[in-house]
Specification:
Cytochrome Bc1 Complex, Chain D, domain 2, 2 domains, binds heme C, two-stranded antiparallel sheet, disordered N terminus, 12 helices
Length: 369
Amino acid sequence: MRSIIRISLFSVIALAACRPEPKPDDNGDGGGGHVTTAYTLQIPANFPPMTIPSDNPMTVEGVKLGRFLFYEERLSGNNTQSCASCHAQTFAFSDNGNRFSTGIDGLQGDRNSMVLQNLGWESRFFWDGRAMTLEEQILQPVENPIEMHETWPNAVAKLQADPAYRELFHDAFGTSSIDKYKAAKAIAQFLRTLISGNSRFDQFQRGEIFPTLLEQGGILLTQQEGGDPANGLGGQWGADCFHCHPHGGARFTDGLLRNNGLDSLFTDLGLGGITGLPQDMGLFKTPSLRNVAVSAPYMHDGRFNTLEEVIEHYNSGGHPSPTISPFMKYTVGGLQLTQEKKDQLIAFLNMLTDPEFLNNPEFGDPGPP
Ligand code: HEC
Ligand code: HEC
């Protein structure tokens, strides 16, 4: 067991590079400089600092605008769907327990909606990792024909016609002339505030609580290598999760794309569908395990309904294929976990639920602007 690091609850680190700074003022009121207020992110003491892109500093005004836009149904073709329709707070900003999300035209995709939390520490976005920045990612769902199915020029025209949005954009960017890049920047700022860092595991890492025996067993198991089935049963065989889902920090993933042995033949090529490279076929982003207990179903295609099914997948060892990760060592024989060990793993995964994040009123629907 690792030693417990005792650190105070939250160290408030001012990371927003932005200082109040005059910006061009085009609202025609003849007023002078435009001033924004730096937004101070609350980074939990057991997390690394967050890197904010220099061309999109966090401001109070930007975050406020981004929150309105995240819940804005006018970004969709028939004004019925917002980002939040498929990314609901109570489900860690994933889709209400649905395997596939339904877009405004009633069409469904073939990927499970992703949780939105601690995105400021991610370096690639979507299950196939096709977007490299949050700002770039956010431009996609609006125009996606099976999602919000709207053109950005139309969406921008709807916002531009609303005096409330003209004012919000002016406050955030010093101009009431709206465009998709400013909209994406504001939403990205809001998404970077969605920090989950007060699960029981975080509290344990900060030395605030002590885990139950069941939880301790799970914590240990995830960090132990799996045994070799050829050498017989028993021993101290672990569950071997940590190579791909390392403990601690903000995410419980190293963010790399991998094949965790779901299939021998791929219907969804994952990263390979983007790069066309044979070695990328069937690779998907290793997801965070935070709040995983509330974000069912699981995997890129939502094939597993329960955490027990997920554990059973790893326990069986999965299906061999040319691109399977070397960390899925034993597709024949599997991990051979006892029921007790499976229960311990489930207890560990439940430790990652953060009720404060799931209920934080600052992340909820702010109503009309
Ligand atoms: C119709 C449902 C739907 C809507 C509406 C929707 N999303 Fe998503 N979102 C998804 C799905 C499904 C994925 C995974 C898609 C994939 O991997 O190809 C996803 C992935 C993401 C990701 C990637 C997360 C990660 O960790 O890689 C982000 C960020 C995101 N959405 C933000 C948004 C924002 C912002 C909006 C509004 C502008 C939005 N989504 C609207 C369904 C939706
Ligand atoms: C070889 C790397 C690897 C190992 C080892 C591994 N995982 Fe994963 N895990 C992944 C990848 C990659 C995905 C996503 C796969 C996909 O959707 O195609 C995933 C998905 C998951 C999910 C679903 C999350 C979601 O939001 O859908 C859970 C839960 C999970 N893993 C838990 C575990 C546990 C518990 C262990 C140890 C028993 C473990 N993983 C071991 C790479 C790994």
